[in-house]
Design brief:
heterodimer, A: 382 residues, mainly alpha, MetI-like fold, 3 domains, 14 helices, 77% helix, 0% strand, globular, B: 311 residues, alpha/beta, Rossmann fold, eight-stranded mixed beta sheet, three-stranded antiparallel beta sheet, 10 helices, 13 strands, 32% helix, binds adenosine-5'-diphosphate, binds iron/sulfur cluster, binds magnesium ion
């Protein structure tokens, strides 16, 4: 296992390297350099411009610039943002990345769970009304034009119904004299989510291993209890209303992302289930006298999961696009929005930094999937 | 039992009657496509969606299992009647340890505590000649012969009254096949259970069964004690099958292959279903169903049986 991990990590690092090189050369293939921005500005004398070129190192040979670029990336030094001067790119990313991850991972987990559960049901009970509605509904949402759907969601649930805020990350009025700043609160929220996930995961592992009776009850109860405990802790510290404000702003974008993406997992699960159901070990499981639910969950779904996990990770890479659009529509100040505004304001350091981080995220997701796969499929040799 | 297909009903099992005594072993033999596996899955009622049992009865220790609900049926599966599948290679779930898959059945039916269940798996592995060190391994770590043994161990786990073995050794090479056959016979004698042994190979059937049913096109065409059927076969199909396979007991015979194929069961031939391939077919064979010829318990359905040669 350790050997396999080292091997995979090395491959990932190599891919990252190729990716960095690509980013570098694409950026350098653009005409001009950072200082061309000032070329037409009569207030900046040519000497200043030359001085600037020296400072930025754009007169150095390309290979030297490249080495500096790689070294800076690995040390997390992406320079200073132009449009957010004097904040560093690293600082901006440190603030924005968690927001995107929170949005993205929450939506991905819910969408995977929903898609898998529905796919399982519609494969098992072919031809029911569940199959009909969820297939039609899912495919419609999957193929719908994302910006239009996002705006519809806002119009329906924020504008007309008024249940949710119309966008943004928080309500500035509420935070005007808040005791803590938003980033600290948000980081604590992420920490809480991690605590709850670990608790639920542990419960899952224990109930699955022991094959306990009422395992579903224990899992749902555990989730409810740990969520309740965390919520209690929040309100005890008096910052609960602030967390709730951020949470309220998250619901609509997460729901939108979930709705446009669950159908992919659902249809894939359905096909994978139908294929697995023909396997001989499924008939054997039935012959053993196992209840239908056990045959479905323990044998069919468990084996059907393998190809789904792989394609889910690949779809994450594509979901990045969807994420950028969603962040724009909901004015969610995450990486997607940062990337777009950096591109629009020609904030080169920020654009490169954001771009590199999106790549790193996708690569890490791949590594995680590899590890998960080894755990899920005993046939994988490492 | 019929399969409802788009082209119509495939009458895979049609008017078949047989019984198996406690401790007895019944062999079902016939070419591929004659409905042997369809009988096997009917006995456990693990039919695919397209299959229907339209009429008849299946008595298991005096209880007709056909009208039983799924929940009631689950009580019978594996505990009273278990099965070794035709595709034994793929009957083990690849993502679970083999030992755990046996324990799954034990916990379900015998309700044994985990430690007892593990102990029972060890006993079973001894019985079928597998090393204990393989209990916690995954199916892909087993060889073909070992998988087959593990499947047999699994079928024996809950000490069923009857085991249905559908071509359990077909995919194995001859030496392994022989060893496993011997093993199965030993186990059956030791545990005094009944067995239905299905094969397309006359030689294998001759070795393992007390009574034999010869199947053709969804029907049993000849039935009797193994000795009678092999020494004095009545039905021309049985004789053809015997000459198509070398005998294991006696002199080597010519491998005369049987020309043609079993009929399409969407529309079986009229009269005797074997008539398109039968060298003795006459006019009445084509139009009328054949009568039953009886010689004691040994019988066959044929218009033109050979002279009785038994002393
Ligand atoms: N799922 C199915 N759907 C339709 N026809 C089937 C199905 N399974 C088997 N059959 C048909 O039923 C007949 C008997 O098949 P089977 O019981 O598998 O025979 P055997 O085990 O003797 O080879 C064959 O004609 C086969 O084509
Ligand atoms: S009934 Fe006629 S066709 Fe059928 S097996 Fe006997 S002789 Fe052949
Ligand atoms: Mg068969």
């Amino acid at each position: 296992m350790a050997h396999y991990l080292v091997k995979r990590s090395a491959q990932i690092l190599l891919t990252l390297f190729v990716f960095l090189s690509l980013v570098f050369f694409i950026v350098n293939a653009q005409p001009g350099d950072v200082s061309s921005f000032y070329a037409l500005n009569p207030d900046i004398p040519p000497e200043t411009r030359e001085r600037m070129q020296d400072l930025f190192g754009v007169n150095d040979p390309l290979w030297k610039q490249y080495l500096v670029h790689v070294r800076n990336t690995f040390t997390g030094n992406f320079g200073v943002s132009f449009s957010h001067y004097p904040r560093t790119v690293a600082d901006i990313i440190r603030e924005r990345l968690p927001r995107t991850l929170a949005l993205f991972l929450t939506a991905s987990v819910i969408s995977f769970y929903l898609g898998f559960a529905l796919g399982k049901i519609i494969a098992w009970r072919r031809g029911g009304w569940t199959e009909y509605t969820s297939t039609i509904g899912g495919v419609t949402l999957y193929t719908v034009f994302t910006p239009w759907f996002g705006l519809m969601m806002i119009w329906l649930f924020a504008f007309r119904a008024g249940w949710f805020p119309i966008g943004k990350f928080l309500d500035p009025v509420l935070w005007r004299d808040a005791p803590t700043d938003a980033n600290a609160i948000f980081n604590r929220m992420i920490l809480s989510a991690i605590v709850v996930s670990i608790a639920v995961f542990a419960l899952f592992a224990v109930t699955a291993k022991r094959r306990m009776a009422h395992s579903r009850l224990i899992r749902i109860g555990g989730l409810a209890l740990s969520a309740l405990a965390v919520a209690a802790a929040w309100f005890a510290t008096g910052t609960g209303y602030l967390a709730w404000d951020i949470l309220k702003h998250m619901i609509l974008p997460v729901a939108t992302l979930t709705l446009i993406s669950f159908a992919g997992t659902m249809l894939l699960t359905r096909n994978s289930m139908l294929e697995t159901m023909r396997e001989d070990y499924v008939m054997a499981a039935r012959a053993k006298g196992l209840p239908e639910k056990d045959v479905r969950d323990r044998h069919v779904a468990r084996n059907a999961l393998l190809p789904i996990v792989t394609s889910f990770v690949f779809s994450l890479a594509f979901a990045v696009d969807g994420g950028v659009i969603i962040e724009q529509i909901f004015s969610w100040p995450g990486m997607g929005q940062t990337l777009v505004s950096a591109a629009l304001t020609e904030d080169l350091p920020l654009a490169v930094g954001a771009f590199v981080f999106v790549g790193v995220f996708v690569l890490i997701a791949h590594l995680a999937a590899d590890i998960l796969y080894v755990y899920l499929d005993p046939r994988i040799r490492y | 039992m019929h399969y409802m297909t788009r082209a119509g009903a495939v009458r895979a099992v049609d008017g078949v009657t047989f019984s198996v005594e406690r401790g007895q072993s019944l062999g079902l033999v016939g070419e591929s496509g004659c409905g042997k596996s369809s009988i096997a899955i009917s006995l456990l009622k693990i039919l695919p969606d397209s299959a229907r049992i339209l009429s008849g009865s299946i008595l298991l220790e005096g209880v007709d299992i056909l009208p039983l609900s799924e929940d009631e049926m689950r009580e019978y599966r594996w505990k009273r009647i278990s099965m070794v599948f035709q595709a034994a290679m793929n009957s083990l779930d690849p993502v679970y340890r083999v030992g755990d898959q046996i324990i799954e059945a034990l916990e379900l039916h015998v309700g044994s505590a985990p430690s007892e269940a593990v102990e029972r798996v060890r006993e079973l592995y001894d019985l079928v000649g597998l090393n204990h060190s393989f209990i916690p391994r995954y199916p892909h770590e087993y060889s073909g012969g070992m998988k087959q043994r593990a499947i047999i161990a699994m079928a024996l786990a809950c000490e069923p009254a009857i085991i249905v073995a559908d071509e359990p050794t077909t995919a194995l090479d001859v030496i392994v096949q022989d060893r496993i056959l011997r093993e199965m016979r030993k186990v059956r004698d030791a545990l005094d259970m009944s067995m239905i042994y299905i094969s397309h190979d006359m030689a294998v059937i001759a070795e393992v069964s007390d009574v034999v049913g010869v199947m053709y096109a969804g029907r049993i065409v000849e039935f009797g004690e193994t000795k009678d059927v092999f020494e004095n076969p009545i039905h021309p199909y049985t004789r053809a099958l015997m000459s198509a396979f070398p005998s294991v007991t006696g002199e080597k015979r010519e491998l005369a292959t049987l020309p043609g194929e079993p009929p399409n069961l969407l529309a079986p031939p009229s009269g005797c279903r074997f008539h398109p391939r039968c060298p003795y077919a006459t006019e009445e064979c084509r139009s009328q169903p054949p009568p039953t010829v009886r010689r004691g318990v040994h019988w066959a359905d044929c218009w033109n049986p050979p002279e009785d040669q038994s002393p």
